[in-house]
User: What shape does this take?
Amino acid sequence: MKHIKFFLIPIVFAFTGCSDFLSLEPQDELIREEYWKTEGDVVAVLGATYGRMASLLDELYYWSELRGGLISPDEKRVSPTSLEFFDYNLNEYNDKIRWDDFYVVINLANTLIKYAPLAKENDQTFSDQAYNGYLAEAYYIRSLCYFYLVKAFRDVPFILEPYATDGQDFSIEKSDEKEILNQLITDLNGIVDQAFEADYFLTMDEKKGRVTRNAVYALLADLYLWNDEYASCIEACDQISDIYMVSGENYFSIFAQDGNSLESIFELQFDYDQYETTNNLYELTSNNTRADREFIVSEFLTGLFVGKDLRQFSPDGDATFNSSNLSIWKYEGNAPYEENSIVVHRTRETSDANWIFYRLPDIHLMKAEAYAETDNFSRSLEELNMVRDRAGIDKYLDTDKKKLLEEILDERAREFVGEGKRWFDLVRVSRRDISNRLSFIYEAVIANVNPQSRTAAATKIKDMDSWFLPVYYDELLLNRQLEQNPFYD
Assistant: This one.
């Protein structure tokens, strides 16, 4: 089996850092047919696509964590931009609602999908297995980016061709959420059998940091759950194999410097020693020496960890959050935190914890939610309690549907705080039955709103259109076919 060395993080080409996808200049080298000669050319662009994904995390953290009630502002350090999220007072001028980095990654994936066939035709040593696997990776990355955009904005421009010429018109209107989701599901079902098995790769960084068949099924399950296709969600979850949960006593190791644990399905790789890459979330969540932390964990989150939950109260000390300064310790520390002992903080050079997109507890809890929504409470409890058992806490037994769904959301909060899931979880569950479940999302929002702003926020949250972000003002100026999202119009 031929393997071409693949660098996960370094950017192979100098891609533009311009402010907006719709004003991107074409990458001349990549759109010339003479560029696409060998398998190595495809691998280079694929490596650049993975590398550019690191730019997504800052916005993703803001979109998914700041309105969900698990993170609170550090009043001494929080920026006005961040406070607009916490106070549920967003507008089209907030710099953190920009989506251009997502469209840059999408454009790279589109470029590979369109031009990789030229390299396959020119390189007689380019195997079908490798070619199909690379295309599967590109389709997956594109689908993942669009799924985040849909969850954050609902309807967005849906572009499936690379920006290749100056004359190409990308002033296009938004596509409907359902249309996009259905196409993503079709695309992923079309490539899942071509995706690499983990055993294709030689190193753990690649097994966990490259798109595998398990990663495709995890994303499919997530898409089906958002689309209220519960049987399909469960079926996709059941296709995931050879992944095992880490023991509760070793929970912190999931986030430790090496990452890529047994339960990991797909992680974005960071490695300062080899590539000088760091996870910038460290700057937002840790009590580092530069004193620029903006966020701390909330009282609501600390109250969720009761008894001897090993995700927080590990045998060696605090795991999820630091009980002394309320930082997200799983990003800040190199070992569990114990007061009055030698504390191992991550320095800027060691703040290279991987970003985890999917791991096995997510699969169990997606199944728990899907079973609960179909009133199969015994199976829902079975999946939920697999995660609780690992954490060393008592089984949950109540079969009241609303309470069970709320407990699943609380379990996801304990398990995934800071991992880019919280707001999307609340929106997904609440929007299915807003008359009965508004309290789920209402309580999360109000917990962090400044008291003077709570009346206004309480009114806004009743309008489901407010759950989605406004389109950044610059996008509206550059693309005259774009319309502002309804709540902000």
